[in-house]
């Protein structure tokens, strides 16, 4: 990691001027969102927007750290001087609120003292569900090419009609899973959840495959074949479909069913097959529970967020297929480019000096920020995989 130096963006030698930092400290990952003013700040506002008052042009940055390595996150904040901004300083009457930062997620409670002790800063806590919904609504309304469907390996961006956004089911797959019926800005109800989520995939996967990182486990799943471990309908029905109840011979009848075999041990299965089977089991299960909840409330749109998805094709495909299969094509699974940052964005939007309406996103601007010291380095702009090393060009206006 690089420390104790000014941050540079875009090949520009001017230091970033940070205004605003917000955190989502989850059970597995800490997500950071911060805004940096463009140096000079003399860019015109987007042509289709009326400048309400003095606007601030800049970029939203994203970064993430493992919660277990919270000290790396603290170091990142202090090395990059992310606490020095304290407001959109060129505006009049702005409050200088350097003494606190907005934070959400369970870690905002758990690590409150640590932030005070190490950075001398208080965490102003924002409700996690509130932040997830605010973040999702912001992305769906303000960011172009944010939501997409994924089926049979093909990604299709969805143009969201702002007047036809609600209601939808937001399914946030973090360590655990929250399912939230969203009816409007700030109007929502957490209708369900499951403890079988991203933490389960990573935890069981680590134990069963001895993988050292989440990405390694995902990578293994690419090469795996779940048929070595799952019992398929055809295994039970002598290679035949059970067409009377709509089950193909290739449908999984029992996840990990073959592992009951008396003459095989863990060592007899390939880690890649285990990973694939586990990923399918968990993604399928979440897809199915999501569909059942959508059915409960007559919701046609299910939007998936959370870092478990990780823009991973096979994960998205499995979830989308599960939703399609169980709803007989009635409900649609949608995914978000900034999937893992909903809570952090929601916390960012909760600063009083600006609201959802005054952050105008000009355009998506994938930018491998050389100062983003998040742990992932495998950002691939072609895949559009957002690892916390990207920023969005935007402007902030006073409401
Ligand atoms: N580099 C990584 N390290 C650990 N887990 C990762 C990583 N990348 C993706 N994941 C997955 O993302 C999940 C965490 O997602 P997310 O950050 O959205 O949730 P969280 O806020 O930590 O959890 P919760 O909301 O339940 O407290 C992990 O459980 C794991 O499945
Ligand atoms: C506890 C939270 C909300 C923490 O983010 C999340 O991990 C979760 O929604 N878990 C699922 C808990 C349940 O509803 O069974």
Q: What does this molecule look like?
A:
This is pantothenate kinase. One of its GO terms (molecular function) is ATP binding. It catalyses: (R)-pantothenate + ATP = (R)-4'-phosphopantothenate + ADP + H(+). Keywords: ATP-binding, Coenzyme A biosynthesis, Kinase, Nucleotide-binding, Transferase. With 399 residues, this protein is an alpha+beta fold. It folds into 2 domains: 6-127 and 340-397, Nucleotidyltransferase, domain 5 (2-Layer Sandwich), CATH 3.30.420; 147-229 and 269-336, ATPase, nucleotide binding domain (Nucleotidyltransferase, domain 5), CATH 3.30.420. It has 10 helices and 18 strands. The protein has helices spanning 70-79, 107-110, 112-119, 128-142, 198-209, 214-223, 233-236, 271-297, 313-326, 342-349; strands at 8-9, 12-15, 17-25, 29-37, 55-66, 100-104, 122-125, 147-151, 154-157, 168-173, 177-184, 187-194, 231-232, 252-254, 301-305, 332-336, 359-365, 391-397. The strands form 4 sheets. It has a 7-stranded mixed beta sheet with strand order 7-6-3-4-5-18-17, with helices on both faces. Helix 6 packs across helix 8 and helix 8 (271-297) crosses helix 9. Residues 26-27, 106, 128, 174-178, 193-195 line the site of pantothenoic acid.
């Amino acid at each position: 990691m690089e420390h104790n130096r000014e941050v540079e963006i875009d090949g520009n030698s001017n230091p970033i001027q940070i205004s605003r930092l917000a955190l989502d400290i989850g059970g597995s990952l800490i997500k950071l969102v911060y805004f940096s003013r463009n140096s000079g700040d003399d860019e015109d506002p987007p042509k289709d927007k009326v400048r309400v008052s003095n606007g601030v042009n800049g970029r939203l940055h994203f970064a993430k750290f493992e919660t277990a390595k919270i000290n790396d996150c603290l170091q990142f904040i202090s090395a990059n001087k992310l606490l020095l901004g304290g407001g959109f300083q060129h505006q009049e009457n702005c409050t200088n609120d350097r003494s606190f930062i907005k934070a959400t997620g369970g870690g905002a409670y758990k690590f409150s003292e640590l932030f005070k002790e190490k950075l001398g800063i208080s965490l102003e806590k924002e409700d996690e569900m509130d932040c997830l919904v605010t973040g999702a609504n912001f992305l769906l309304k303000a960011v172009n090419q944010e939501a997409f469907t994924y089926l049979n390996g093909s990604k299709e961006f969805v143009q969201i009609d702002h007047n036809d956004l609600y209601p939808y089911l937001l399914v946030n797959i973090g360590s655990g899973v929250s399912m939230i019926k969203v009816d409007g800005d700030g109007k929502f109800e957490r209708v369900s959840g499951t403890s079988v989520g991203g933490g389960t995939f990573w935890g069981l996967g680590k134990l069963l495959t001895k993988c050292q990182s989440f990405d390694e486990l995902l990578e293994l799943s690419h090469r795996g074949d779940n048929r070595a471990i799952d019992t398929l309908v055809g295994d039970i029905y002598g290679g035949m479909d059970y067409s009377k109840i709509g089950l193909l011979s290739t449908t999984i009848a029992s996840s990990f069913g073959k592992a009951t075999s008396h003459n095989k041990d863990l060592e007899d299965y390939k880690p890649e097959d285990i990973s694939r089977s586990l990923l399918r089991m968990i993604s399928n299960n979440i897809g199915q529970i999501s569909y059942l909840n959508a059915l409960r409330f007559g919701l046609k749109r299910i939007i998936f967020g959370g870092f478990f998805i990780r823009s991973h094709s096979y994960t998205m495909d499995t979830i989308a297929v599960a939703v399609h299969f169980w709803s007989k094509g009635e409900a649609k699974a949608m995914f978000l480019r900034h999937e893992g940052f909903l809570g952090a964005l929601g916390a960012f939007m909760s600063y009083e000096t600006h609201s959802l309406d005054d952050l105008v996103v000009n355009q998506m601007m994938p930018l491998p920020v050389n100062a983003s010291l998040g742990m992932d380095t495998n950002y691939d702009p072609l895949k559009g995989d957002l690892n916390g090393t990207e920023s969005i060009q935007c402007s902030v206006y006073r409401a």
